Amino acid sequence: MEKKSIISRIIESGLKNTKPRVNIIDLLEQSDNLMTAQDIYESLRNNGVSLNLSTVYRSLDKLTENNILNKVMLEDGKQALYEYNHDIHHHFLVCKSCNKVKPIYSCPLDKYEKELEKKTNFIITGHRVEFYGYCKECQRKLKNNKTLI
Amino acid sequence: MEKKSIISRIIESGLKNTKPRVNIIDLLEQSDNLMTAQDIYESLRNNGVSLNLSTVYRSLDKLTENNILNKVMLEDGKQALYEYNHDIHHHFLVCKSCNKVKPIYSCPLDKYEKELEKKTNFIITGHRVEFYGYCKECQRKLKNNKTLI
DNA sequence: CTCAATGCAAACCGTTTGCATGCTC
DNA sequence: GAGCATGCAAACGGTTTGCATTGAG
Fold first, then answer.
1. What are A80-102's pLDDT values in tens digits?
2. Interface test with A, best of B61, B131, B138 (most A CBs within 10 A)
């Protein structure tokens, strides 16, 4: 994505256009993986961008509030992950060995959600789905090591 | 559940039968709601059981490891919740207003999971699903207050 | 008697916050 | 120039850990 469109996305949200915000969005938009605040901080520092961890957290909060980014909490609950919000509904496939997280762009829950609303009298506004298992690479590694039960 | 069967469940797992463990299992088995470590700690204290928060955490760890309890991390990621493990596959319906968590004992994902395994070459060992929304009571309250957007 | 479990206090670690300074609009 | 954003350091809060003591098997 061009810097210009990143900047206009920030401004349209009513936020101020600052270097840390542009850099964070740019990084996440280009990243294949979800990243933690720490990941982002280190990655930017390593690329010569000087900024503070608390700025990263504050930026992530603002950008998540404004739907430019998504915040994701996986099962372990240790630390939050962030991704650029492409506005495409999706879920995740998480490898329990290497911890890689792959997005899945199909969702089996639409009909089920409607049924559930009727059954429970809830208004359902969203859902979260994750699949846990072992990716192809780790299956191979673990088979060789015989550590996969 | 009777104390006796709680104790035998502990012993069968190879753990030692101690008061904190029996009390924690007993409490969670009878609770309608998921509880945090802090909840458990306070509830037991209020019932005259003297024990330490770190004992609660250590017990919860051991009991979760041994599948007597389940540990659940919701979207906010603030604190872990625990439930007695009835060995029935289920998911949760979470009210974003009152934070109540209701188990749902149906699951729409079995077929989908198989498809996904083929498509992605993952071995899938489990999944997690939560629905977020507003429960009947909170819908009413919020409608009156006009604070539900 | 041995080893696992507990109590207590201190550490941990991801995240948040208060305050002075800087920068965007 | 006004008000939001940042840097820095300190606080927070849930959870974990080291160590001496207790208690189950």
1. 999 999 999 999 999 999 999 99
2. B131
